[in-house]
Design goal:
Oligomer: single chain
Number of helices: 6
Number of domains: 1
Radius of gyration: 15 Å
CATH superfamily: Flavodoxin domain
Order of helices and strands: EHEHHEEHEHEH
CATH class: Alpha Beta
Mean pLDDT: 98
Bound molecules: flavin mononucleotide
Low-confidence stretches: none
Structural class: alpha/beta
Shape: globular
Amino acid sequence: MKVILWNGSPRKEGNTYQALQECVGVFAEAGIETELIQLGQMKIESCKDCRACAKLGRCAINDGFNEVIDKIREAEGFVVGAPVYFGTARGDVMSGLQRLGMVSRCGGGWLYNKVGGPVAVARRGGQTMTLSEMLMFFYINGMVVPGGKYWNLLFAGPVGEVQKDTEGMENLRVFASHMVEVMQKLYE
Ligand SMILES: Cc1cc2nc3c(=O)[nH]c(=O)nc-3n(C[C@H](O)[C@H](O)[C@H](O)COP(=O)(O)O)c2cc1C
């Protein structure tokens, strides 16, 4: 089994990345393969509503994002990490989710039953709105979102501050463990 994780931050090893590493550790212990994609380093255009994906089975925009879509198609798990920018997820994260969702739906809805969820990181506020925004993607695509012991949100401003949010980091480990349990039930 494999889990794809997106770091939606342009800060390559920033707080979102460090938070996702808590999940990576849990997956590794369970023998689940992971790949963390540095989405924040890519330039992702928004969906153009051209519907070409219905014929092509992939996105018509040639900006390298099809490779990311293919990786998720082949994986059983998917975790999206986003920094909060002005109360919402960083723009490219939502552009990516919308294009991914469209290609899946045009291809018969292959995101169905993939297991995962969103993670939101902010200095002070906006995480719950950002989680809600990203959860809309998971639910409309028939995905399975295991809960943790709290919501998947963390408080951090400067790079590395997320390590001080011990409760938030512990919750991510619980969420990832629950993901493992559900993936094993669905896919083993
Ligand atoms: C453009 C921009 C907007 C931001 N908006 C918010 C916000 O609305 N609420 C908040 O608490 N933090 C906000 N922040 C702070 C980041 O969410 C915070 O620094 C976070 O740790 C960044 O994660 P990263 O290290 O993974 O990039 C903003 C940062 C930037 C660059």
